[in-house]
Write a structure and sequence with these properties.
Blueprint: E1 10-14, H1 17-20, H2 61-75, E2 79-83, H3 86-89, H4 100-115, E3 119-125, H5 131-137, H6 144-160, E4 166-170, H7 180-184, H8 195-219, E5 224-230, E6 233-236, H9 241-263, H10 268-276, H11 285-291, E7 297-301, E8 305-308, E9 332-333, E10 339-340, H12 342-356, E11 360-364, E12 374-375, E13 381-382, H13 386-405, E14 409-415, E15 435-437, E16 449-451, H14 453-463
Helix pairs in contact: 2-4, 6-8, 8-11, 12-13
This protein binds 6-O-phosphono-beta-D-glucopyranose.
6-O-phosphono-beta-D-glucopyranose is lined by residues 16, 127, 171-172, 230, 301, 321, 364, 368, 415, 422-425, 430.
């Protein structure tokens, strides 16, 4: 008999606080780096929040979460991934005491999830930190950030220790090389940073992540703490050995972060690279000891794959959220140019499991597309998103195959389970959800929620534990 999804497989969906909550100045929240990023990665940051920043209101999840969690429960979610907005808990980031109203909001949200038997999976920092820490300290370029992050972790771990079992320390930690402000709060313009600055900030983040894992295990013995990497899946464009070597080297840009989180030390390939390139970092013995606190599982995002090549004239560059590569002639692309490659997910799962033998959690996957709200014959308003169902079905089929290959997969939370503001382009018309939210790029809309066709499809998938895809 074919092996299917494990009985306790964690089915669910994922969002991030800054992309859905809105209420950017409510109940004592401070400004975060996202509040001054109206265009995601495609426009420069502003000095102060501006009206065109859709994230300031998001989908008003801060006020409507009860209705939304109820819809997640109706789909049968076992897990809901969200993040905590750091600036709700520490408005500036360097205060001694947390903001009680911010803490209370997440108490209420987690209680609402638990009421339906939905386990929260919480990202401690998902592409946002208090803006003050970025402007005053230059974010993770400064060692002091480790201490501020530690205080934040202590506050939320001790508060939610009986409610949250699954934690992720940083979203897509490897993204700081590509989006230093959004990912690591680095206020210095990217063009002024040298290679060493990126590795130094990465080191401080890795130490902060290890420290969170250590404290988390001490304060919450039953908790499972994971790292989260941007799953960059690359193929060599040609069999030219130069392309194979290039792919191997590019893969290490992602592996580096998982290697350290899982093995607890810097791999030799990067130490040699530092030496050869005269990159001297501030790394103390205490840091190295902290790095030994390793994670319980590895989580990653997977949307697309691309190619690496030393023959750029043979292809064109492709879209992608942060990391771009070359077009693969064998796969199609989304409306945003992200290459759709379900088999790449099976490959990624096998590749990570072969290397680490730790449980894997797919915490982001999905199709960003333009949806049209229509009225059916019986008067129901919905979106007939067969394209999304097709994308998700194909990917889940490959997850199933990876499980048959012997990979240990803990769960699957598809991205943007309810429509939210996109991260890279800050648009609302790029929708991922099972639930349509009536809000448009010009800020208009009633914020009403509608079930899409995929809502009913996913409900069935969960009910049959992936037997019926
Ligand atoms: C991931 C991020 O990289 O991609 C999410 O963790 C993001 O925050 C997701 O939303 C999809 O990207 P986008 O730009 O389509 O929202």
């Amino acid at each position: 008999m074919a092996i299917g999804f494990p009985k306790d497989f964690l089915w669910g969906g994922a969002v991030a606080a800054n992309q859905c909550e809105g209420a950017y100045q409510e109940d004592g929240k401070g400004l975060s780096v996202q509040d001054v990023l109206p265009g995601g990665l495609v426009k420069d940051r502003t000095k102060v929040p501006t009206e065109d920043n859709l994230k300031l209101k998001g989908i008003d999840f801060y006020h409507q979460y009860k209705e939304d969690v109820k819809l997640f429960a109706e789909m049968g979610f076992k897990v809901f991934r969200t993040s905590i907005a750091w600036s709700r808990i520490f408005p500036k980031g360097d205060e001694a005491l947390p903001n009680e109203k911010g803490l209370q909001f997440y108490d209420d949200l987690f209680d609402e999830c638990l009421k339906y038997g939905i386990e929260p999976l919480v990202t401690v920092s998902h592409y946002e930190m208090p803006l003050y820490l970025s402007e005053q300290y230059d974010g993770f370029r400064n060692r002091k950030l480790i201490g501020f992050y530690e205080n934040y972790c202590r506050a939320i771990f001790s508060r939610y220790k009986d409610k949250v079992k699954y934690w992720l320390t940083f979203n897509e930690i490897n993204s700081l090389f590509h989006a230093p402000f959004m990912s690591a709060g680095i206020n210095t313009p990217k063009s002024e940073l040298i290679e060493k600055d990126f590795y130094q900030a990465a080191h401080y983040e890795l130490v902060a992540s290890a420290l969170a894992t250590k404290i988390g295990h001490e304060l919450m013995p039953k908790a499972q703490i994971g790292c989260m990497v941007l799953g960059v899946t690359l193929y060599p464009l040609t069999p030219d050995p130069n392309d194979i070597i290039l792919k191997m080297l590019r893969d290490r840009e992602t592996y580096l972060f998982a290697d350290i989180h899982v093995r607890g030390h810097y791999p030799k390939y990067i130490l040699n690279y530092f030496e050869a390139n005269d990159i001297k970092l501030d790394i103390t013995q205490e840091d190295l000891d902290l790095l030994k606190h390793t994670v319980d599982f590895i989580s990653f995002s997977y949307y697309s794959s691309s190619c690496a090549t030393t023959h750029p004239e043979l292809s064109e560059s492709t879209g992608g959220n942060l990391i771009k590569g070359y077009k693969n002639p064998y796969v199609k692309a989304s409306e945003w140019g992200w290459q759709i490659d379900p088999q790449g997910l099976r490959y990624t799962l096998n590749k990570l499991y072969d290397r680490y033998q730790l449980p894997l959690f797919i915490v982001e996957n999905g199709l960003g597309a333009v949806d049209e709200l229509v009225t059916t014959d019986d008067g129901t308003q919905t979106v007939v998103d067969d394209y999304r169902i097709e994308y998700l079905r194909a990917h889940l089929n490959e997850v199933k195959k990876a499980i048959q290959d012997g990979v240990e997969v803990m769960g699957y939370t598809s991205w943007g389970c309810i429509d939210i503001v996109s991260a890279s382009t800050a648009q609302l018309k790029k929708r991922y959800g099972y639930i349509y939210v009536d809000r448009n790029d010009d800020g208009t809309g009633s914020l009403k929620r509608y079930k899409k066709k995929s809502f009913h499809w996913y409900k069935d998938v969960i009910a049959t534990n992936g037997e019926k895809l």
